């Protein structure tokens, strides 16, 4: 589904913040991404989402070589990806329900086809009584949950989440992780960037990626957790 080969990335004329990044993500797999603040986790997720271009190396998404894919075809690839970034990117003029249902509307569905499912999803993340609220009236944690619901509502082939439980209480955090786990069981490939050891123990991750000083190392989840507990 995703393949990176010796990818490097820099902003402008600055130094490379990601160097020689190589990995693959298979359909239906579950991965965690960790590392110190400033290591480049968000930048790596943006590369996967095709929001940024590498300065070198090769990226393949859904069997397409990105370097040779016309720009006007990239939005179609992005629609196959659900994304939760820390800045949320909600549309202020839309209600909570309208923000979450937007991916389904873009796919051409009628409200009658998704209304019940969106309402159930919002109830699951603790926003069942906020369907008609506008983003300006929401707390940071509520906005985060709206962004998560929007990312999963269309059952994407690939889900990327950057610290998805950073602003929610443990109960809601547990619900969100169960939501991601169930989506993964349906075939969605999941990658979550997190520092939270509780998440690492709770989800069925097969591999844990660690970014440090711009370089990526990969460990089996069991080995990483055992080493972390010894430390």
Structure description:
The protein has 231 residues and is of the alpha/beta class. The protein folds into two domains: 2-80 and 156-230, Rossmann fold (3-Layer(aba) Sandwich); 90-154, no CATH class. The chain is 36% helix and 24% strand. Helix 3 packs across helix 4 (111-124) and helix 3 packs parallel to helix 5. The chain is globular and about 45 Å long. The two termini are 34 Å apart. The model has no long low-confidence stretch (mean pLDDT 90).
Keywords, separated by commas or semicolons:
single chain; 231 residues; alpha/beta; Rossmann fold; 2 domains; 6-stranded mixed beta sheet; 4-stranded antiparallel beta sheet; 24% strand
What's the short story on this structure?
This protein has 231 residues and is of the alpha/beta class.
> What is the spatial order of strands in the main beta sheet?
6-7-8-3-9-10
Distance between the termini: 34 Å
How much β-strand is present in the residues?
Answer: 15-25%
Number of domains: 2
Write the layout of secondary structure elements.
Blueprint: E1 2-9, E2 18-25, E3 30-34, H1 41-48, E4 56-61, E5 64-65, H2 74-78, E6 81-84, H3 96-106, H4 111-124, H5 140-152, E7 158-162, H6 170-185, E8 189-193, H7 197-202, E9 207-212, E10 215-220, H8 221-230
Parallel strand pairs: 3-8, 3-9, 6-7, 7-8
Antiparallel strand pairs: 1-2, 1-4, 4-5, 9-10
């Amino acid at each position: 589904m995703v393949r990176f080969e010796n990818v490097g990335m820099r902003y402008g004329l600055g130094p490379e913040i990601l160097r020689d990044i190589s990995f693959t993500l298979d359909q239906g797999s579950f991965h965690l991404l960790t590392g110190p603040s400033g290591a480049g986790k968000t930048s790596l997720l943006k590369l996967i989402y095709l929001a940024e271009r590498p300065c070198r190396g090769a990226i393949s998404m859904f069997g397409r070589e990105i370097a040779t894919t016309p720009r006007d075809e990239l939005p179609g690839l992005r629609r196959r990806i659900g994304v939760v970034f820390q800045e949320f990117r909600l549309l202020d003029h839309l209600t909570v329900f309208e923000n979450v249902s937007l991916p389904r509307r873009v796919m051409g569905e009628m409200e009658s086809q998704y209304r019940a499912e969106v309402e159930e999803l919002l109830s699951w993340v603790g926003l069942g009584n906020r369907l008609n609220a506008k983003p300006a009236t929401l707390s940071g944690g509520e906005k985060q949950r709206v962004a998560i619901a929007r990312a999963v509502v269309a059952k994407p082939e690939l889900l990327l989440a950057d610290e998805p439980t950073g602003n929610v209480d443990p109960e809601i955090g547990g619900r969100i992780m169960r939501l991601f786990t169930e989506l993964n069981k349906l075939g969605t490939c999941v990658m979550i960037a997190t520092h939270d050891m509780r998440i690492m123990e709770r989800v069925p991750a097969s591999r844990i990626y660690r970014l440090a000083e711009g370089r990526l190392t990969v460990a089996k989840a069991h080995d990483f957790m055992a080493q972390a507990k010894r430390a």
